[in-house]
Amino acid sequence: MIAFSHVHKRYPGGFEALRDVSLVVDSGELVLVTGHSGAGKSTLLKLMAAIELASSGTVIISGQNLAKLKSAAVPFLRRRFGIVFQDHKLLYDRTVFQNVLLPLQIAGFDSRDAARRARAALDKVGLLAKEKALPITLSGGEQQRVCIARAVVHRPAVLLVDEPTGNLDEAYARDIVALFRSFHQVGVTVVIATHDRLVAEQLSARTIHLGQGRIAA
Question: What was the pLDDT predicted at 165?
Fold first, then answer.
């Protein structure tokens, strides 16, 4: 479960990205976070994953208050999450397979088990045949699929997705959204930040609308 109580997030210079945000995302839920560019959607996801900390208020993740969590415990908390970044963050000097394998190597998985999981994740997103390709040779939609495979390879409890369809044509976008639905259907908590009308139309989900850093609806 993810719970925010009166959360504010201020950046250096005084910009307040989130203002008095209170919400709960239950385990196994599918939630859309909508709003204009700069509304605070990305910041909200970063707070959920403990990439950033709230300036004030309380963020509870799986019963743990992030403000009281020791820094050494943060990497273990993050293992509960898979994150699909808006800008991909792929390593372009490594193959598709090596990109997906990396989180498992960092976590210390046995090499055989890690390879099996990486190929299973690539198969899930339809890219097993391109495991030896470099990301630069892939289309935008295929690169997004690699990101998704990397995010779910360690079988996270929560999948956080930031603007997944922003640079994709409609056909690719529909396929990507269908993948997120399939993960939710097997029990993964999925939170998607988007301003894409197509995503909202394709997914039947609770929607949290942000405006100027506040929950507007």
Answer: 85
